[in-house]
Automatic annotation (TrEMBL), chain A:
It comes from Oldenlandia corymbosa var. corymbosa. Signal peptide: none annotated. GO terms for biological process: protein polyubiquitination. Transmembrane segments: none annotated. Residues 208-266 form the RING-type domain. Residues 2-29, 30-57, 139-166, 295-324 form the C3H1-type domain. Keywords: Metal-binding, Repeat, Transferase, Zinc, Zinc-finger. This is OLC1v1001558C3. Pfam families: zf-C3HC4, zf-CCCH_2, zf-CCCH_4. One of its GO terms (molecular function) is zinc ion binding. InterPro entries: MKRN-like, Znf-CCCH_4, Znf_C3HC4_RING-type, Znf_CCCH, Znf_CCCH_sf, Znf_RING, Znf_RING/FYVE/PHD, Znf_RING_CS. A zinc finger (C3H1-type) spans 2-29, 30-57, 139-166, 295-324. The lineage of its organism: Eukaryota, Viridiplantae, Streptophyta, Embryophyta, Tracheophyta.
UniProtKB/TrEMBL annotation, chain B:
It is an enzyme of class 2 (transferase). Keywords: ATP-binding, Nucleotide-binding, Transferase, Ubl conjugation pathway. This is E2 ubiquitin-conjugating enzyme. The lineage of its organism: Eukaryota, Viridiplantae, Streptophyta, Embryophyta, Tracheophyta. GO terms for molecular function: ATP binding; ubiquitin conjugating enzyme activity. Residues 154-193 form the UBA domain.
């Protein structure tokens, strides 16, 4: 079945506050529901100046609102659409339409059905097209009630829209009963968010050993981050640990042994990972480190500069070393046998190294 | 400088002063100049003495070590008998921002009980420590008695003597306190003031 959704009206105007959680589509490819809801009810105060289309539509969610009914009311419109090609097997045949309203409703709107079909039909998968005009109103096309999804629907049982199933994690009626993929997506993102909140709660109490303050109670959002050291498990805020590691070794401190080491256990760490949450297990730390590295790997290294520059970190660089054509840098290390039997890796020698020292007289 | 951290440190340190015996007080209105007090460790020639340490916090604190030196005169191989300068790695290249004023003072207290004559600040004291240990112990004990003890009688006598020289009593008391009980130093201060 096509999982076609209606384009979000607010998204079209660039002002949807629900973002990823909007029950309407934020994909420009999806058809827009441009039918005036007031016209469906009989009168639109804007008349010909209305920015929405004044057509009699059968499929808009608002049209079903004219007939008061209980949540599974979306089934109402089913016989409407299957009416023109009566006799053909309907996808929704299994469902029993509520008989009270649908007769009058179908007779009124069946004539206008092609108008809808024209809009919606654009993106329908081929198997649906083969069914032709019979392409019935799929309950999965119906958006769920946004009030219920947000927590509470004032219309309760009387609401003409589908009320979503209860999500066990976030406790809202926001699982669409007929969109398994969306349910799964929501469920997963909900669990992920829940875990994140849990971890955030645990991280709340953790103090930075340098500023002696709770990291997540710092005044600005930028400061409310941990700086995780790669080799040990002592918590610091990102600002403090970066400050320490970059402080000038003017006071006679040794750069590598003093500044690069953990202020508490003095274990040497070569990099600091910023993180909003603190970890409670080795695996969680590994996950944070990996996701950080993955993020950096997608960013082009400014030193490498698509092959124009040279990166001092070489193969150890966390950033992406790719040329303009998308080819990744291939590194072949030259191993040199030193006199004492040790193997050293030869540094890249660039012509520019010589040219920059060259003095032209 | 991280002022809130200094505030916090002072509060924390002075909370358990009964247990540790370590106290930090403001020298002036600003938080950059402080005075720490540590008791002489038991079982050492410094036992019974109270040692004052001048603490100056730089702008880089806590990323730079605090500048500390003894105000009270001490006879110790790693502390200058003249200037009070302290030779301790954590106050120099081994400083870490996870250390606090209290832990630094605790380290100094530990230094009093475990001298390092191999890495001396005061060569004369270190020589004595290595070659004539009994003399070192008696000298250190004498210095503790003379400079680090504020027996009420001793202070009263010193005040009495200085007042007789013609200085007002309140000035004498504050000068003596600033000099850590050293009568000569107090006299010097009074004369230059």
């Amino acid at each position: 079945m096509s999982k076609q959704r209606t384009l979000c009206k607010f998204f079209v105007h660039g002002a949807c506050l629900k973002g990823d959680h909007c029950e309407f589509s934020h994909d420009w490819k999806d058809p827009q529901n441009n039918v005036c809801t007031f016209y469906q009810k009989g009168i639109c105060a804007y008349g010909s100046r209305c920015r929405y289309e004044h057509v009699k539509a059968s499929r808009t969610p608002s049209s079903s609102s004219s007939s008061s009914a209980n949540p599974p009311e979306f089934l109402l419109s089913e016989p409407i659409l299957s009416a023109p090609s009566s006799g053909a097997p309907s996808v929704l045949e299994g469902h029993v339409p509520s008989t009270t309203a649908d007769l009058s409703f179908s007779s009124r709107s069946s004539a206008n059905e092609p108008a809808w079909g024209k809009i919606v039909g654009l993106d329908v998968e081929s198997q649906d097209i083969s069914i032709g005009q019979k392409r019935s109103l799929n309950p999965a096309d119906q958006p769920i009630c946004s009030f219920a999804a947000a927590g509470h629907c004032p219309r309760g049982e009387m609401c003409p829209h589908i009320h979503g199933d209860l999500c066990p994690t976030c406790g809202k009626h926001c699982l669409h009963p007929f969109r398994p993929q969306e349910r799964e997506d929501h469920y997963q993102s909900c669990v992920r968010r829940q875990n994140h909140l849990e971890a955030l709660k645990c991280s709340q109490e953790i103090e930075c050993s340098v500023c002696l303050e709770r990291v997540l109670s710092k005044p600005t959002a930028a400061e409310r981050k941990f700086g995780i050291l790669s080799e040990c498990d002592h918590p610091f805020c990102i600002g403090c640990i970066r400050n320490w590691r970059s402080s000038s070794p003017a006071s006679g401190m040794d750069m590598n042994s003093a500044l690069r080491s953990c202020p508490i256990c003095r274990k040497l760490s070569y990099f600091v990972i910023p993180s909003v949450i603190w970890y409670s297990s080795k695996e969680e730390k590994q996950e944070i480190v990996e996701s950080y590295k993955t993020k950096l790997r997608s960013i082009d290294c400014k030193h490498f500069d698509f092959g124009n520059g040279s990166c001092p970190f070489g193969t150890s660089c966390f950033y992406k070393h790719a040329y303009r054509d998308g080819r990744l840098e291939e590194v072949t290390l030259r191993h040199l046998g030193a006199e004492d039997g040790q193997t050293v890796i030869a540094k890249n020698i660039r012509l520019s190294d010589f040219l920059s020292n060259l003095q032209i007289r | 400088m991280d002022l809130s951290r200094v505030h916090k440190e002072l509060r924390e340190c002075n909370k358990d002063v009964e247990v540790s015996g370590i106290h930090i007080a403001l020298k002036s209105d600003s938080l950059t100049h402080l005075v720490g007090t540590i008791p002489g460790p038991l079982g050492t020639p410094y036992e019974g003495g109270t040692f004052k340490i001048d603490i100056i916090l730089t702008d880089g604190y806590p990323f730079e070590p605090p500048k500390m030196k003894f105000v009270t005169k001490v006879w110790h191989p790693n502390i200058s008998s003249q200037s009070g300068a302290i030779c301790l790695d954590i106050l120099k290249d081994q400083w870490s921002p996870a250390l606090t004023l209290k832990t630094a003072l605790l380290s100094i207290q530990a230094l009093l009980s475990a001298p390092e004559p191999g890495d001396p600040q005061d060569a004369v004291v270190a020589q004595q420590y290595l070659k004539e240990y009994p003399t070192f112990v008696s000298t250190a004990r004498y210095w503790t008695e003379a400079f680090a003890k504020e027996s009420s009688l001793g202070v009263a006598e010193k005040v009495q003597r200085l007042v007789e020289m013609g200085f007002p009593e309140d000035l004498v008391r504050s000068a003596l306190e600033a000099a850590g009980g050293d009568e000569n130093l107090a006299l010097e201060k009074l004369c230059t003031a």
